[in-house]
Write a structure and sequence with these properties.
About 50% of the residues lie in helices and about 15% in strands. It is α/β, with parallel strands linked by helices. Helix 10 crosses helix 11 and helix 18 runs antiparallel to helix 19. The protein is globular. It starts with 8 loop residues before the first helix and ends with a helix. About 40% of the residues are buried.
Length: about 450
């Protein structure tokens, strides 16, 4: 049977309209689809643009340095300012224990492991030669002129950062031992401040006899690094020396060294210093001086602002340490600065940090925040600093007239020897002569002499 086709006039008339409508709808759907695709593409482009920089932009280089926790906290504002103005570097301060020896041990341990996490080493002046001799630091001599550096900074601070004629530490802040004395008590008894050891003993005895003070002179006699620092000032005042770093000659058994020990023994034996002075560190002596119970104190500059808010405020002053007739005084030089760790993967960025802290205005901020002593000469008379720390100009003559502890790689061991035998002599366990003779012998063995 053949297919039968039916003809519907109405349907035939609708066919063109349906066809046109379908064509129109297809075009509209295509347009909407294109718009949707366009919107989606635009959205994805914006998303990519916003994400891409975060993925392709280089991360800031992390520069780590280990600092005692208390000082690290004082640095936080300067650290934040540095990171804000140096987007290519993130300066990270690792806060260590508030103990110089422990911080040195942490640095040493990290260097011995061969892959230290630190890029910068913030160093006490007595660490430099040890670290440099072990080849743990980069030589900075090519980056700065040492002679020009001495024109800007205290020369001894620069010398303390060198080893075998090369610079390994840029100075940042200084320190120096000095003699504090009670101006009101001296005036009441009719004395001027002493210049010699004999004058200090005489004045102390007179004021004790007049019941104006309990003790005459306090100093750091405990067996620790502070004992070595204090003793080198007395030794210098008698014209002696500890170790000559150029020749490794040892002077601890020479007459000048014996005289220095005898002076300290005299202050104990004659009741000028308390019997317990051989157990005192910086803080014990500071508190005794601030209590008003002693005339003279050997200590560091940090005492000045603290004593200025104590019961003796306005009644004390400072001067260089006393000395023997015809000899010179010398403040034991302290101080800290930056070196670049040899294993750092970012030496240029580490140097950029050092350059930042080398600026006078940054060092001014540091001193204002911490109360430390500048190593840069000009800052001792900086109007802003002097307004807050009026004693700074007087400190310059003290720290500028300084003496270095022996700048030798074996310093830590040499200091340990000196401390042990000084303690023996000062506590009466041995005579000054025998103790210092043995100390000299052991030091010579240590130095291979």
């Amino acid at each position: 049977m053949k297919n039968i086709k039916f003809y519907n006039p109405t349907l035939e008339k609708l066919k063109p309209k349906v066809h046109n409508w379908l064509k129109f709808m297809i075009i509209r759907l295509k347009q909407k689809f294109k718009i949707t695709i366009l919107i989606l593409a635009t959205f994805l482009s914006i998303l990519c643009i916003s994400i891409l920089p975060a993925q392709t932009q280089e991360k800031p280089v992390n520069i780590q340095v280990l600092i005692q926790a208390l000082e690290g906290t004082q640095w936080e504002k300067i650290q934040a300012d540095f990171n804000k103005t140096h987007p290519n570097i993130n300066l990270e301060i690792v806060k260590g224990p508030n103990n110089t020896n422990l911080v040195e041990d942490l640095y040493t341990s990290s260097f011995l492991l061969g892959d230290s996490p630190y890029d910068l080493a913030y160093m006490d002046i007595v660490w430099v030669q040890k670290f440099a001799a072990a080849e743990w630091l980069k030589d900075l001599s090519e980056k700065v002129d040492i002679q020009q550096l001495k024109e800007q900074y205290l020369p001894r601070d620069v010398e303390g950062g060198t080893y075998q004629g090369k610079l390994y530490r840029m100075p940042l802040r200084s320190d120096g031992g000095m003699l504090y004395y009670r101006t009101d008590l001296l005036k009441k008894a009719g004395f001027q401040s002493p210049n010699t050891f004999a004058e200090l003993i005489k004045i102390s005895k007179k004021l004790q006899q007049q019941k104006l003070t309990e003790w005459g002179y306090v100093w750091q006699g405990k067996q620790y690094e502070g004992l070595s620092a204090m003793f080198i000032e007395i030794l210098k005042g008698y014209g002696g020396f500890w170790v000559n770093p150029e020749t490794n000659q040892v002077g601890l058994d020479r007459p000048e060294a014996i005289e220095a020990v005898n002076f300290l023994r005299t202050t104990i034996d004659e009741g000028i210093s308390p019997p317990g002075v051989t157990t005192y560190g910086e803080e014990e002596t500071r508190l005794l001086f601030q209590s008003g119970n002693t005339v003279f104190l050997r200590n560091w500059p940090y005492v000045y602002p603290l004593a200025s808010t104590s019961k003796i405020a306005g009644n004390f002053n400072i001067k260089p340490m006393v000395h023997a007739p015809g000899k010179n005084s010398g403040a034991c030089l302290g101080g800290w600065g930056f070196g670049i760790v040899k294993t750092t993967k970012h030496p240029e960025e580490a140097w950029e940090v050092i350059q930042y802290f080398n600026q006078p205005e940054i060092q001014r901020k540091l001193i204002l925040a911490t109360g430390f002593i500048p190593a840069r000469k000009s800052l001792f008379n900086d109007p802003i600093l002097v307004e807050k720390f009026p004693y700074l100009p007087d400190l310059f003559s003290v720290v500028n007239n300084s003496v270095l502890r022996p700048p030798i790689p074996q310093y830590a061991q040499a200091s340990d020897i000196l401390q042990r035998y000084l303690s023996t002599a000062l506590t009466g366990s041995g005579t000054p002569e025998s103790a210092m003779k043995t100390a000299a012998k052991e030091t010579r063995v240590l130095l291979g002499e």
